[in-house]
Specification:
The protein is of the alpha/beta class and about 260 residues long. The chain contains eight helices and 13 strands. The strands form two sheets. Strands 4, 5, 6, 7, 8, 9, 10 and 11 form an eight-stranded mixed beta sheet that branches. The chain has a five-stranded mixed beta sheet with strand order 2-1-3-13-12. Strand 6 and strand 7 form a beta hairpin. Helix 4 packs across helix 5. The longest helix is centred in the first third of the chain and has 23 residues. The protein starts with 6 loop residues before the first helix and ends with a strand. The N terminus is likely disordered.
Length: about 260
């Protein structure tokens, strides 16, 4: 038996297959990317869930970038609201508004401080200084200078116990700032391990030489940074970077996120 092929038909089918493959590839590789909101940080989710479970008929102000997804957690007739200027004024000017019962804050706001200050109509006239994540914890005495020798290396931080003639006077945080040749005592240190904060005030006077009135904030194994007095004097600084027991208005805290009761 002789099988005859229709050459024109085969060529046409081949052409259609090639075109289909090319079109399919184009559609797949040029598929529009999702423009949906990014997932909320887990600590923010926990804070919102607790807020909604423990309250009813209340409003909570959140950063505008969280608003869409934060609204999905509302129950018990609670309401999530956004207003960038009100949010900035609460965090930086300690203002309050009659329609806001709670405010959500988190450490991530540090990444957008400049925008926050613009929204509050303020000039950002300071900076946060970061240091290596490694640091020293040791004693400092007239006979053992290893703590101060360590911090004499550029851009370093050391948490020391200060001894004089064998008597412990107390803790002291010492830093060498970038570009500086001096060792500066810092007002206090805060060590945060992802769950709890430990506040350690330095046993030095505010009129001590090179005294720095801010706080050394250590997120253990992640980041070490100097938070200046200007930030620590704001609502945001005091409510976010001090232990729960030292802050005044915290409703509850979940790691890097906290809900603050305003009225």
């Amino acid at each position: 038996m002789i099988i005859r092929f229709n050459i024109k038909l085969l060529l046409w089918i081949s052409f259609l297959v090639v075109v289909t493959v090319i079109v399919s590839y184009f559609l797949l590789t040029n598929k529009p990317s999702s423009t949906g909101p990014s997932p909320l940080p887990s600590n923010v989710v926990y804070a919102l869930e607790y807020f909604n479970a423990a309250n009813s008929n209340s409003t909570i102000l959140v950063p505008s970038e969280y608003y869409t997804q934060a609204s999905l957690y509302s129950i018990n007739n609670n309401k999530v609201i956004e207003n960038d200027s009100e949010y900035a004024n609460i965090l930086l000017k300690n203002e309050s508004y009659p329609n806001v019962n709670f405010v959500l804050i988190d450490m991530n706001t540090l990444n957008s401080l400049s925008e926050l200050y613009v929204d509050a109509g303020l000039n950002l006239n300071y900076s946060i200084t970061t240091f290596p994540t490694t640091y020293s914890i040791t004693n400092l005495s007239s006979g053992d200078r290893n703590c101060i020798d360590y911090v004499n290396k550029t851009d370093m931080f050391a948490q020391c116990s200060l001894f004089v003639f064998g008597k412990r006077l107390g803790p002291v945080a010492l830093v060498t700032f970038p570009g500086s040749s001096t060792v500066d005592p810092v007002n206090a240190s805060v060590f945060y391990n992802g769950t709890a904060m430990n506040y350690i005030r330095s046993a030095v006077l505010s009129n001590s030489t090179n005294f720095r009135p801010g706080v050394m904030f250590v997120y253990v194994n992640l980041v070490t940074m100097y938070l200046p007095e200007e930030l620590m004097n704001t609502f945001y600084g005091k409510e976010m970077f001090l232990p729960l027991g030292m802050a005044k208005n915290i409703f509850d805290g979940f790691g890097e996120a906290r809900t603050i009761k305003l009225n």
